[in-house]
Amino acid sequence: MAAQRGQRNGVGGDTPPAPTAAEITTPIPRVAEVPAARERARAIPEAAVARLAVYLRVLSAMQEQGAVTVSSEELSAAAGVNSAKLRKDLSYIGSYGTRGVGYEVTVLIEEIERILGLTRKHSVAVVGIGNLGHALANYGGFPGRGFPVSALFDVDPDLVGVPVGGIAVHHIDDIPAVCAEREVSIGVIATPPPAAQAVCDRLVEAGVQCILNFAPVVLQVPDHVEVRKVDLAVELQVLSFHVARRADDAAAMEGRQVNGMVVS
Amino acid sequence: MAAQRGQRNGVGGDTPPAPTAAEITTPIPRVAEVPAARERARAIPEAAVARLAVYLRVLSAMQEQGAVTVSSEELSAAAGVNSAKLRKDLSYIGSYGTRGVGYEVTVLIEEIERILGLTRKHSVAVVGIGNLGHALANYGGFPGRGFPVSALFDVDPDLVGVPVGGIAVHHIDDIPAVCAEREVSIGVIATPPPAAQAVCDRLVEAGVQCILNFAPVVLQVPDHVEVRKVDLAVELQVLSFHVARRADDAAAMEGRQVNGMVVS
DNA sequence: TACCGCTTGTGAACGTGTGCACAAAGTCAG
DNA sequence: CTGACTTTGTGCACACGTTCACAAGCGGTA
Description:
- The structure is a homodimer.
- Chain A contains nine helices and ten strands.
- By secondary structure, chain A is an alpha/beta fold.
- Chain A has two domains: about 20-115, Winged helix-like DNA-binding domain superfamily/Winged helix DNA-binding domain (Arc Repressor Mutant, subunit A, Orthogonal Bundle); about 125-235, Rossmann fold.
- In chain A, the strands form two sheets. In chain A, strands 6-7-5-4-8-9-10 form a seven-stranded mixed beta sheet. A three-stranded antiparallel beta sheet of chain A has the order 1-3-2.
- In chain A, a hairpin with a 2-residue loop joins strand 6 and strand 7.
- Chain A starts with about 35 loop residues before the first helix and ends in a 9-residue tail after the last helix.
- At the A-B interface, helix 1, helix 2, helix 3, helix 5 and helix 6 of A face helix 1, helix 2, helix 6, strand 10 and helix 9 of B.
- Chain A binds a DNA duplex through helix 4 and strand 2.
């Protein structure tokens, strides 16, 4: 059940600390009993959501090591972010810390999982059983579990029927049927670029609303479908840019006066 | 204490890459001469660099189809961004368009390649020849070419010596020697999480300055090393968040008041 | 040459996200 | 109970990135 207690908005509502006059601009928050959690979820910046996932992993590791509470300082250090940012990120999901003490690890894990929707299983379908697709299928359970790979697809007739990572491969024409039957909520596209859009269309048709795209193409999807892209070529090229920048810097540094000290 | 050096999360597409540690050096009044290109390179926002890589791919496709010139409108549509943003991105690298006409495809390709440092080959080393590492090694030449995989490493003695994708696997103890010899400039970490940091340290020791990390851990590296992270678990969890948000929206839409009722 | 329509390049407004700094709120010792 | 100390939660300011809107500039046309 998990009824949510309507937690109030972060802004001091119960204790009237006589908030100067700065509050004038803020509209009255207390309108309807509009429920917070849902509204709040929408308000979480995408970047913060990605970080929450990282915090979750770090917290799980800490929990395994027997940690009971953590301070924002510890957690932020382990997650590689600044502590203020961490606290702000956590504040998006509510106030679960204790001042002077820190956060209870289990509570934080629970709350983050709830916000990220990890309390429910999300079936994943992988389309394109080539090098990458094969690797993804074999990940088994997928990293962090809670994401069971429950369907595999490919065009190659030789591959259809063959089990990969314990699951039989279906033909992509069966995407709508199989995805619907197995309630796939996330589709992973690992096909060659030319096939990606067609596959994407089929997934959308099958009712899949979230897609993780490894193919180096820009997918066209309806507004209600969420796409995230992982593009190796782009990653490498960005790194290449940094290599080049470094080389240039070094060259410039050399040619210029070597002024070891730069005041600031 | 120093500012934390986070790793950029490599995601392109419509979701803005979670930035972290914008690395702006102190506002040094560097008004020196004007080699432009170097100074300019530093000024390009990370997000824009990632998009340039995308434009490059789209342009290559257009070139193959025989296109000679392209307007910002066409190109931006194909790349899935807004035309103003595209023009601004291109303006970071210079003015290579012709008003009233558009951009010459070949010129644009050349300039983007130059800025991204693609005029030079970047040897890539893949560490961790498991599911993913294997897939990466077999990509051969790596997507977009210009990134030859020239070294493979693993701890497993049974794997050492075995050729994968045409290249023999070395033991990770040989990272420094082999990387130095083959002038590896980009290291790809595809090991299990516990091994990642140690491998990273070895790569850094070998002089590798850019790392693409697939392991779900936050790597600690010296300031002069650039890390980009590709984290499947995070990607899936972000998508999970969107699934949950959608479900909530739908529920709210349907039940109006209701305070909570999450599935079980 | 003068005009017209088209597309670039960019100054400026806007929005979002980050980091700082501090009051609020809790613990613990005496 | 009081006071010292610790850590959260957040208002605020700043910086970055995105978007708008338009002048500048170019090709084509008469």
